Amino acid sequence: MAAADDASRPFAGLSDVSISGDISVEGDISVPVGSSRRDDEYSTLDEPVKETILRDLRAVGNKFIHVLYPKRSSALLRDWDLWGPLLLCVTLALLLQGGAADSDDQGGPQFAEVFVIIWFGSIIITLNSKLLGGTISFFQSLCVLGYCIMPLTVAMAVCRIVLIGGSGTVSFAVRLVVVTASFGWSTFASTAFLGDSQPANRKALVVYPVFLFYFVIGWMILTFSPSQ
Amino acid sequence: MATAKDPFQFQEFEEAGNLLEANRDATTISIEDDDVEPERQKRAAGLNPSGDDDEDTLPYDDKSELLSGQQKNAPFWTFEYYQKFFDVETRHVKERILGSVLPWPGKNFVQVHLRRNPDLYGPFWICTTLVFAIAISGNISNFLMHLGKPNYKYTPEFQKVTIAATAIFTYAWLVPLALWGFLLWRNNKIMNLVSYSFMEIICVYGYSLSIYIPAVVLWILPFEWLRWCTIVVALCLSGSVLVMTLWPAVKEDHPKVIVAVLSAVVLFNVLLAVGCKAYFFSRPEPALPIDITTAAVVIKTSSLT
Asked: Start and end of every Yip1 domain (chain A) (predicted)?
């Protein structure tokens, strides 16, 4: 009889274990009414487009300044974006274009070649650093490598201006100095950002590809000669 | 019933015991093989079994065996699988480059320097450096050749990068692939004591190209005799690294096969070096460049029409 009773209530044992009545469950669920109004202040939905663009441009500009003063190393790594690298890469490729795309003897790098060298170069360097056991994330590394092209883009602009004046020995010497300086600057800035992500016994293995990358870009800038 | 079961169970037990014994045997045999084979390989490679050498190599062998045991598990589509090919430190890479630039008779590159831990870092970046070194110094030598002439306007030749990249990466990947396939096929026919993995052959080929980087930079100087001298020196060094490394893998074979393999290896090396020199560093002749440019213009116009 008792067994049949137990069988009819299979969870009888469980009801004994349940929370005793004298523990009251308290708490309140409140829907935060005021916070929605606070969110509105930070929402980007109904702000003017000009402000959105300006804010992004300001972030890009801040990163340019970080490249100029490479000592403050963490700011460029914290929030990455690829707008600056895209801007620099397109500017550099357009400046290297030579202005006369239809001339036959144009042997310099074409827009697509520059673009591919910069992006695939930085992707390969990033993969290399990840494969060697680096602690930096993929897009952070791409962002740093892209932003550090900036000195070389500036050198390219300077070279175009110098080349207007003429293409003699003096002009070549000036261009050589400018490109060498900006190449050193780029390499120094990027290693300041990227160097800490590697163990000390592998630092040279990561720095060497970066050096080669900027060296090739520097060579493209130095040997650029506009077709008349 | 029970009596009928007893012998059956006993038999099973005996079988299990046999299996266990067989397993034990197998493991002992495999351990012995592992211990014996490096010794044989060293002897086959012509290493003198001096005490110093053994003390030097044994800890590394142990370490690399442990590491390879750890990393064997990762399948090939994961990132970790490729990480084991980049498991090198700066001093390893330096040591390997030096070993490939200064080959020493009796020192097998794979057994002395790689120690069962072939890397892809060196081959990839040596090839890339060589591509840009050839393209850049080819451009500079072209510029120096025409420097004094009037009416000469320097134009960069960026297509040299593309062509050099195609040539060098084809050489550094397809020749090892063919060689590895051939050695695998020969290994089925004749038991060779030494067999190299694909990565080891790739690694040897990549590092053997490192001597060409300084050679190519020297080719900038417009002296034909200097270029041929550096070609011969570089060929001797990189060819001897390749031949000395491959020698233990083929030496049990027929003499004809040995000669064919080694001469093919050397021939491809010569083809690469001489081809690069002939294409990227043209001979300083006064009349030729104009002919080439006019011919190019003619070809271009004819292809356009």
From this structure: 67-220
Residue B73 lies in a domain: no
Rounded mean pLDDT of B211-229? 89
- On whether any CB of chain A is under 8 Å from the CB of B152, the answer is no
| Position with higher pLDDT, A43 vs B158 | B158
Q: Is B128's CB within 8 Å of A212's CB?
A: yes
User: How many independent structural domains does chain A possess?
Assistant: 1
Helix A138-147 and helix A49-68, axial crossing angle in degrees, nearest 10: 80
The answer to whether A161 and A96 are in contact (CB under 8 A) is: no
Residue B16 confidence (pLDDT) above 70: no
- pLDDT of residue B52 exceeding 70, the answer is no
Question: How many structural domains is chain B composed of?
Answer: 2
Q: Pick B1 or A69 by higher pLDDT.
A: A69
Residue A204 domain boundaries: 75-222
Task: Report how far residue B95's alpha carbon sits from residue B92's, in angstroms, rounded to the nearest whole number.
Answer: 5
Tell me the per-residue pLDDT of B95-109, one tens digit each, with 9 for 90 and over. 888 888 888 777 777
- Determine, for residues A107 and B155 on separate chains, whether the beta-carbon distance falls below 8 Å: yes
Q: Would A111 be classed as within a structural domain?
A: yes
Given a cut of 50, is residue A66 above it in pLDDT? yes
Domain of residue B33, residue span: 14-44
Residue A22 lies in a domain: no
Q: Say if B184 falls within a structural domain.
A: yes
Angle, CA A31 vertex, CA A30 and CA A32 arms, to 5°: 105
CB contact under 8 A, B157 and A209: no
From chain A, the residues in CB contact with B80 under 8 A are none
- Asked if residue B65 is part of any domain, the answer here is no
- Largest alpha-carbon pair distance within chain A? 114
Q: Is residue B222 part of a domain?
A: yes
**How much is the pLDDT for B161?**
87
Interface of B with A in 1-60 (CB under 8 A): none
| Predicted complex: ipTM over 0.90 | no
Report yes or no on A20 lying in a domain.
no
Interface contact B82-A131, CB threshold 8 A: yes
% residues pLDDT > 70 (chain B): 66
DSSP output for A96-161 = TT-S-TT-TT--SPPHHHHHHHHHHHHHHHHHHHHHTT--S-HHHHHHHHHHTTHHHHHHHHHHHH
Choose the closest CB to B157 out of A107, A202, A212: A107
Residue of chain A whose Cα is closest to the Cα of B82: A131
